[in-house]
């Protein structure tokens, strides 16, 4: 009987202590673009190990959902998290945190873009085939007010664009490129615009998740 | 009588010619083994037994012919493309920046003269060693005496964009240049020799296995394994049951291909092509 009481007390202590420990953690949830394989997912995890005290790291490669908990007293900001995702080579789409005190903070892609100040450089997939495509894509992107530099690699299909985030956004650049007839990661070109491309530029259309 | 002899000689010649005819062969799926709770990334063999690195679960597992786990090596940190020589397993640990060796004497960390950032693949060949150093975009190669390093981030020949696997052969070093979507081949001084697969629209060439006459490459996102000859000519594309493949191995004339996501081990045999 005495033994049972001691065990019960110990369990109660463990539960209470566990709950307290859980209360002392901020829970971060980030949606990450660009995760495709275990190498990417483990890479993201590896870069976040630099945050000493990180726990409960979970990454879903399919959805790009990434979550972890972190000691509340360290007051990690969403901005810090987004920077670390970018340092690992990926793009944060949305980020939110449930603070240990029960409050929520959130930043969406649009909000992130608004918060960005000054010159930024982004990489994004743009479909195309050849040197003519390259000329068309870079011309369209460069026509957007605020864009300072742009290049496109026909092998990797990656457009690298630098712009003043106070004047424009990656979304605006992608829209302009799509109008020129080229599918981008987030904007599909209209069938008519694609149809107007010369035969050699008729690339394989990108597929988009519904 | 004379006519019969002529016909007989003719038949003998015809059959002799037929025997000499080379029948083309290709790889055909013979078996798929569903693994239980394993997400394999690399595979190798020790004494004929297959070992798989299970990155998601931080372990290596040895499996029997039915895919049942018979032995486990735990407490690893994201083990990736493994290799083995004699009875020693070489395990690159992506999360811990080390290559660990495991044999009957115990577990040891391979001593290097340089630091790694996410080792994704290792190769052993006699007393030579090579490591695909993922985030440093380079290959470290030990020729038995000295370590050398070659490669840097980029898309030009000799440059890498996240190399994930490597294999040493008699006179070359073969690299799965994953996110440049190609294979690159180097001499043992680190000099660029050739490139292959760059026109095959691969999406993450994550694994490589070089056999006597063929080179096998996993095309991770496109759910394919591409088979090239050593000059880089595409010979065959394997798709049957292949889904998010990460590595391959030839063993007893069978080709083993592992699927990362659904945990399957696919076995292919080389069979004559039906006309």
Automatic annotation (TrEMBL), chain A:
What Gene Ontology molecular function terms does this protein carry? metal ion binding
HMA domain sequence ranges: 26-93, 119-185
One Pfam family name is HMA
Q: Which UniProt keywords apply?
A: Signal
Signal among the record's keywords?
yes
Task: Tell me the leader sequence span.
Answer: 1-21
**InterPro entries, per the entry:** HMA_dom, HMA_dom_sf
Q: Which domain of life is it from?
A: Bacteria
Asked if NADP is a keyword of the record, the answer is no
Protein name per Swiss-Prot or TrEMBL: Copper chaperone CopZ
From TrEMBL, chain B:
Q: Can you tell which superkingdom this protein's organism belongs to?
A: Bacteria
Q: Does the keyword Repeat apply?
A: yes
Query: What CDD domains does its record include?
Result: NHL (cd05819)
Record PROSITE patterns: NHL, PROKAR_LIPOPROTEIN
Name the Pfam families for this protein.
NHL
What Gene Ontology molecular-function terms does this entry list?
ubiquitin protein ligase activity; zinc ion binding
Presence of keyword Translocase: no
Task: Give me the NHL repeat coordinates as residue ranges.
Answer: 149-189
Q: Which UniProt keywords apply?
A: Repeat
* GO process terms (BP): proteasome-mediated ubiquitin-dependent protein catabolic process; protein polyubiquitination
Q: What is this protein called?
A: NHL repeat-containing protein
Q: Which organism is it from?
A: Maribacter caenipelagi
């Amino acid at each position: 009987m005495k033994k049972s009481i001691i065990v019960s007390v110990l369990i109660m202590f463990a539960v209470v202590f566990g709950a307290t420990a859980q209360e002392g953690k901020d829970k971060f949830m980030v949606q990450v673009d660009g995760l495709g394989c275990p190498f990417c997912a483990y890479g993201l995890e590896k870069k976040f190990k630099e945050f000493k005290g990180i726990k409960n790291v979970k990454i879903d490669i399919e959805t790009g959902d990434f979550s972890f908990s972190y000691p509340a007293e360290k007051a990690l900001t969403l901005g810090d998290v987004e920077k670390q995702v970018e340092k690992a080579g990926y793009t944060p789409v949305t980020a939110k945190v449930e603070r240990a005190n029960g409050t929520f903070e959130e930043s969406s892609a649009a909000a992130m873009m608004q918060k960005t100040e000054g010159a930024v450089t982004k990489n994004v997939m743009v479909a195309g085939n050849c040197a003519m495509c390259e000329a068309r894509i870079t011309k369209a992107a460069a026509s957007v007010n605020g864009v300072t530099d742009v290049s496109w690699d026909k092998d990797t299909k990656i457009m690298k664009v630098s712009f003043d985030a106070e004047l424009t956004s990656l979304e605006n650049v992608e829209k302009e490129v799509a109008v020129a007839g080229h599918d981008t990661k987030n904007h599909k070109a209209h069938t008519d615009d694609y149809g107007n491309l010369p035969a050699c530029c008729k690339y394989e259309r990108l597929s988009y998740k519904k | 009588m004379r006519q019969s002899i002529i016909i007989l000689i003719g038949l003998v010649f015809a059959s002799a010619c037929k025997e000499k005819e080379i029948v083309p062969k290709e790889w055909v799926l013979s078996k798929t083994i569903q693994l239980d709770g394993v997400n394999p990334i690399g595979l190798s063999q020790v004494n004929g037994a297959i070992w798989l690195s299970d990155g998601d679960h931080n372990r290596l597992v040895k499996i029997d012919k039915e895919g049942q786990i018979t032995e486990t090596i735990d407490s690893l940190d994201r083990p990736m493309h493994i290799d083995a020589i004699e009875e020693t397993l070489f395990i690159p640990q992506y999360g811990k920046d080390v290559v660990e060796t495991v044999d009957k004497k115990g577990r040891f960390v391979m001593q290097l003269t340089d630091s790694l950032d996410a080792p994704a693949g290792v190769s052993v060949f006699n007393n030579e060693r090579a490591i695909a150093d993922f985030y440093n975009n380079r290959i470290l190669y030990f020729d038995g005496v000295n370590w050398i390093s070659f490669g840097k981030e980029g898309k030009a020949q000799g440059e890498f964009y996240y190399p994930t696997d490597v294999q040493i052969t008699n006179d070359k070093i073969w690299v799965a240049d994953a996110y440049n979507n190609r294979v690159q081949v180097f001499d043992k001084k680190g000099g660029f020799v050739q490139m292959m697969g760059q026109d095959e629209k691969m999406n993450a060439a994550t694994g490589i296995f070089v056999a006597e006459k063929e080179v096998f490459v996993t095309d991770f996102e496109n759910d394919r394994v591409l088979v090239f000859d050593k000059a880089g000519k595409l010979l065959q594309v394997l798709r049957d049951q292949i889904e998010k493949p990460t590595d391959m191995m030839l063993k007893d004339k069978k080709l083993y291909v592992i699927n990362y996501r659904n945990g399957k081990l696919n076995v292919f045999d080389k069979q004559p092509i039906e006309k």
